[in-house]
Design brief:
Elements lengths: L10 E13 L12 E13 L2 E5 L5 H6 L8 H7 L9 E3 L5 H4 L9 E5 H8 L6 H4 L5 H9 L3 E4 L3 E4 L2 E5 L8 E5 L6 E5 L5 H5 L10 H13 L4 E4 L7 E2 L4
Parallel strand pairs: 3-4, 4-5, 5-6, 10-11
Antiparallel strand pairs: 1-2, 2-3, 7-8, 8-9, 9-10, 11-12
């Protein structure tokens, strides 16, 4: 896989939005029981110079409360805590369109959104046809209006977003799940989102228990490992990043 061009001094800041007690089996396919597991919900802020890029938007408070989240804060509040206003965000990468990653998209009225074609096709098509997949989505009308507004940039496969930032489609968790690869002199960093939901998924090569294609979910893990990242930002671990030896 081609690495992003090593240019641009991008920092990555995980911003926690909420916590929840979940079931361990949701995240470790055929590997763990259903005992309780504490998880976090977050977005990621990228900065370089005067530019701010947001990866995912998180859920609004009402949706989070409906689904049992606690210690919640809005994405606007999390950004203000990082001295960033929502209107400063002109680029949003949606790793996928599940409720906890995309349903606050309407807060970013000045932004353009980068979504994989396979994800949009799924979301606009069969994702809502059965409760097994529909349960992971919300705010469909709002997101459909966003797509129809022309503010969504459709990505078809790997895409160089900026010098030093590359979007890579991995699928598995959803058909168009994408990771964000950030070039570093000491080795790349990867925002894996729910392609790798918890740090143990990476270290033990266990695919997420929530997926549309388990073969692709395993391949996503191998793709990230093959990059030899120095740091991986997983989707829901209480420890927001996994520091690794480069290469």
């Amino acid at each position: 896989m081609r690495m992003p061009e090593a240019a641009g001094a991008w920092s990555v800041e995980p911003l926690e939005l909420a916590r929840r007690t979940a079931h361990r089996a949701w995240f470790f396919y055929l590997s763990d029981d259903g005992s309780p597991l504490e998880i976090a919900y977050r977005v990621w802020l990228l900065r370089s110079g005067n530019e701010r890029i947001l990866v995912d938007t998180g859920p609004p408070l009402d949706e989070g409360a409906r689904r049992g989240l606690r210690d919640m804060r809005t994405v606007e509040g999390a950004l203000l805590g990082a001295d960033v206003r929502t209107e400063e965000i002109r680029t949003v990468v949606l790793t996928h369109m599940h409720w906890d990653h995309a349903s606050s998209a309407d807060r970013f009225t000045h932004a353009r959104f980068y979504v994989q074609r396979a994800e949009l096709d799924f979301f606009m098509g069969v994702a809502h046809d059965h409760p097994a997949t529909a349960r992971f989505f919300s705010h469909r009308d709002m997101l459909v209006r966003l797509v129809e507004s022309g503010r969504v940039e459709i990505v078809d496969g790997d895409h160089d977003l900026r010098p030093g930032i590359r979007l890579v489609r991995v699928g598995g968790h959803t058909p168009g799940s994408q990771i964000v690869v950030i070039a570093r002199p000491e080795g790349c960093e990867v925002i894996a989102s729910d392609a790798i939901p918890l740090n143990r998924n990476y270290t033990d090569l266990i695919p997420n228990g929530i997926f549309v294609n388990v073969v692709d979910a395993i391949a996503a893990l191998k793709t990230v490992r093959a990059l030899g990242p120095s740091k991986v930002y997983t989707g829901h671990d209480l420890v927001p990043s996994l520091l690794l030896p480069a290469g």
